[in-house]
């Protein structure tokens, strides 16, 4: 920036680089801070569609929180290869070695009537952007209850993304006039259990040993927004 104005020759896309076709993401892709926003991008951030917002991480990298898109299927599969086994178990509650094309396609095409999903991704077009976190909620058929699931990669964990994503799921559920939001959490996943407790979720008995169900009464006082 010079004299208070953006210099188009010194800035570029708001993310470091797109994910080239055929290249697998690397761990250090998340360690490099974003470049300055170009003038056009800086203006557009004030005109974001619903459920879109920017989040700057402590390491300087900027992410775009947005609804998941079908084009995210391949980046989602590629990013899955960077996850540790314990992260996979915390999200799916059992071991998975690979995110299959069919599973990725299903995850990136939520039913708009009863499902909602957000990603934390590079601010690049869907299909090019690396994805570092996914949050989903699905209404149980015939009820006003919904189940949530959140996965934040350890590369960008501990920076408030989980809390932000959970609050957005709660907001969506309230707008749907749902009664209850719940999720099953591994009993040793202290980070998720602590987050849920801080937002007013109560522990319940899960049907499966080793799991803890946390539930939020959506008709009670709303959790602290951020």
What does this structure look like?
With 226 residues, this protein is of the alpha+beta class. It has a domain at 48-181: 3-Layer(aba) Sandwich (Aminopeptidase). The chain contains six helices and eight strands; from the N terminus they run H-E-E-H-H-H-E-E-E-H-E-H-E-E. It has helices at residues 39-44, 73-80, 85-92, 101-107, 161-175, 190-198; strands at 53-56, 62-67, 115-121, 131-139, 145-152, 180-186, 202-205, 211-217. The chain has an eight-stranded mixed β-sheet with strand order 1-2-3-4-5-6-8-7, sandwiched between helices. The radius of gyration is 18 Å and the shape is globular. It starts with 38 loop residues before the first helix and ends in a 9-residue tail after the last strand.
Rg, alpha carbons: 18 Å
Please state the average pLDDT score: 79
State the strand order across the main sheet: 1-2-3-4-5-6-8-7
Stretches where pLDDT is under 50 for at least 5 consecutive residues are 1-23, 35-40
Helix content: 10-25%
In whole angstroms, how far apart are the ends? 29 Å
CATH topology of the domain at 48-181: Aminopeptidase
Architecture of the domain at 48-181 in CATH?
3-Layer(aba) Sandwich
What sort of overall outline do the alpha carbons produce when their principal axes are compared?
globular
The ordered H/E elements are HEEHHHEEEHEHEE
Largest sheet: 8 strands, mixed
Total number of strands: 8
**CATH superfamily grouping of the domain at 48-181:** Gcn5-related N-acetyltransferase (GNAT)
Number of helices: 6
What class do helices, strands and sheet pairing give?
A: alpha+beta
CATH class of the domain at 48-181: Alpha Beta
Strand content: 15-25%
- Give me the oligomer status: single chain
């Amino acid at each position: 920036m010079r004299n208070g104005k953006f210099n188009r020759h010194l800035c570029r896309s708001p993310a470091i680089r797109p994910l080239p076709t055929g290249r697998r993401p690397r761990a250090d892709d998340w360690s490099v801070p974003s470049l300055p926003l170009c003038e056009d991008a800086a203006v557009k951030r004030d005109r974001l569609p619903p459920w879109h917002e920017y989040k700057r991480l402590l390491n300087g990298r900027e992410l775009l929180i947005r609804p998941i898109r079908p084009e995210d299927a391949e980046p989602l599969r590629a990013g899955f290869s960077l996850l540790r086994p314990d992260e996979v178990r915390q999200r799916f509650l059992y071991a998975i070695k690979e995110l299959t094309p069919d599973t990725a396609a299903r995850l990136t095409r939520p039913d708009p009537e009863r499902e909602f999903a957000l990603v934390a991704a590079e601010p690049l077009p869907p299909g090019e952007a690396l994805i570092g976190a996914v949050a989903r909620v699905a209404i149980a058929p015939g009820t006003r209850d919904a189940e949530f699931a959140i996965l934040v990669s350890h590369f960008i964990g501990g920076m408030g993304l989980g809390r932000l994503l959970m609050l957005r799921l709660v907001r969506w559920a309230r707008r749907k006039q749902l009664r209850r939001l719940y999720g099953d959490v591994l009993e040793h996943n202290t980070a998720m259990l602590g987050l849920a407790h801080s937002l007013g979720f109560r522990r319940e008995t899960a049907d499966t040993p080793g799991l803890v169900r946390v539930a939020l009464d959506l008709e009670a006082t709303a959790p602290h927004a951020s």
